[in-house]
Amino acid sequence: MPPLNTIRPQRISTHSATLKPPPPLDSSLSSIENIVSLTALPELGTNIFTNSRPQWQPTGARGIYGGSVIAQSLLAALQTVPPEFRAHCRPNVWVMAVPKPCRPPGPSGL
User: Fold this and answer.
1) Which residue has the higher pLDDT, 79 or 6?
2) What's the rounded Cα separation, in Å, for the pair 1 and 62?
3) Residue 3 falls within a domain, yes or no?
4) Cβ 80 vs Cβ 70: under 8 Å
5) Would you say residue 1 lies in a domain?
6) Burial of 109 per CB tally in 10 Å (0-12, 13-18, 19+)
7) pLDDT, tens digit, for every residue of 25-58?
8) Quick count: other Cβ atoms within 10 Å of Cβ 36?
9) Is 9 helix (H, G, I), strand (E, B) or coil?
10) Which of 47, 74, 81, 84 places its Cα 20 to 30 Å from the Cα of 41?
11) For position 74, what pLDDT does the model report?
12) Residue 49 phi, psi dihedral angles, 5° rounding
């Protein structure tokens, strides 16, 4: 076995696992609706969701596609409020990939 300081973490691939086996594709939904679908996790608590299918990582990207994360966040939020509530604002702040090794912020907070 190689020394621990030489082991590099593997990149998440487009075939990464989900917490539960993906359900069959729903032919009544569009492709994108199937891709961003959510699975409830009642065994972990109320209003807890996970992705139903592996997240898409574009070729050459450092991480998964942020648009699908935003869509899933909005879907989860809509499932936690009464039906008369509607989304009216969706500001995005894009999160940059964290370089490895991750360091805590310095004294200035940066």
Assistant:
1) 79
2) 27
3) no
4) no
5) no
6) exposed
7) 999 999 888 888 998 988 888 999 988 888 877 8
8) 22
9) coil
10) 84
11) 87
12) -130, 160
Matching residue, tokens 């608590």: 45
- Taking residue 1's Cβ as centre, other Cβ atoms within 10 Å add up to 4
CB 35 within 8 Å of CB 53 = yes
- Residue-number span of the structural domain to which 59 is assigned: 13-110
Name residue 17's amino acid. Answer: A
In-domain check, residue 78: yes
Please give the torsion angle defined by the CA atoms of residues 90, 98, 96 and 30, in that order, rounded to the nearest 10 degrees. -60
- 77's enclosing H/E stretch is helix 66-78
The arithmetic mean of pLDDT across residues 75-103, rounded, is 75
66 three-class SS: helix
Task: Give me the CATH number covering residue 104.
Answer: 3.10.129
> Is residue 2 a part of any domain in this protein?
no
- List pLDDT tens digits, range 5-30: 444 433 444 445 678 888 899 999 99
Count of structural domains within the chain: 1
Closest C-alpha to 16, from 48, 61, 64, 62 = 64
At 7, phi and psi to the nearest 5? -80, 125
